[in-house]
Amino acid sequence: MILYIVLAILVTIGLVWLIDKFIPSKLRPVVMIVLWVVIGFLAYNTFMSVYKPIQFNQIKNKRYAQVIKSLIDIRDAQLAHKQVTGRFANNFDNLVSFIDTAQFTITQRRDTSVLDVEMTKRFGGVETFKDEVIIDTLGFVSVKDSLFGSDNRYKTMMNVPVGQDGAKFELKAGFLDQNDIKIPVFEASVKKAVILNDQDKDLVNQENQVVSVEAVNGDAIKVGSMEEVNTNGNWPKTYGAD
Q: The pTM is what?
């Protein structure tokens, strides 16, 4: 496209030169004005064809970074939920309520030896010991304080921070069966079209098709998966921890 526009500009400039040589002097001012307007229009389109993708990428990267920050908060909250309850939350109301009220148990592991009564009897009263692991509970700490401190941003982590007004992340949770074992999984996601709703549609469609190790592949930004045991995000490390 750019090559065609540049070629058109060169042809137009050539026409200006020909007009200057062969068009009657009375008509030259009008024709010249028209041609220079065409040249200016083509030059503007050439500039915008280069500048718009650059501007789009700047906006995209800035918005993606904000969205990924929220997804990392969601993942941290979900991992805490699984640690305490054994499963992931399947909606944000339950997840927020969990953060408000739940506590981590602080434990300490100790290795010790105790008398093995059965083995002692078998050996005719010769004391026999066995190794055991003892878990001591030292106390409890608030999940909220551990993850967010005094920051209450977790209460709005379901809201997509940029793009379409009122948009929310989609949250799913459930279990995968692997070798007759049910393993908890979750996924939080938002479509790129929602994040970039006010941008050029052609550029958004191109972004949805992107496949690269240095880009967010697919038509959505997400963390976790409902199809495999995975709590990573689908963004490259240039955007932060995956």
A: 0.73
